[in-house]
Amino acid sequence: MLGNTLKSALMISLLALAGNAMADITFSKTTDGSALDIDKSTFDTPAAKEFLATGKNPYVGNEDAIKAGKKKFNLYSCVACHGGKGEGAVGPGLIGSNFRYAKNATNKGMFETIWNGTNGGMGAKGFGLMAPDDGLTPDEVLKVIAFIRSNSNVKMTGNE
Hints:
Blueprint: H1 2-22, E1 27-28, E2 35-36, H2 46-54, H3 63-75, H4 78-82, H5 107-116, H6 138-150
Antiparallel strand pairs: 1-2
InterPro entries: Cyt_c-like_dom (IPR009056), Cyt_c-like_dom_sf (IPR036909), Cyt_cL (IPR009153)
Keywords: Heme, Iron, Metal-binding, Signal
Pfam families: Cytochrom_C
């Protein structure tokens, strides 16, 4: 009898752990730390789904994704404030270890900052936060982050 009870308790514990491992990460606004609600259906690529589950950016180090991210970085005029490689210009640098927002050392944190904007004046780039046909999708944001990380002067991937 005790053996079956122990087995049942172990099975319930394992299921609970498995459920937690499958839970999506939660997002918070860089502006005030409050909850950032992003429509989960916009995470519609395998890479975006992996990011949503783990907070790790699978595009870091992927040359094709880096090229696509660079194009978006230029298209959305990120270069105007952050420089051609994210080194900083009018706006803060994004590639070193001294971030204006410490959370940007992680890909999850940088995603939140790009998606919803900052108190320092950067507007939200997340799809659906501007006009429905404007902005970036989660997959595109991850590619932009991969481009930024490829220029890191401290070899920071954000997936540490």
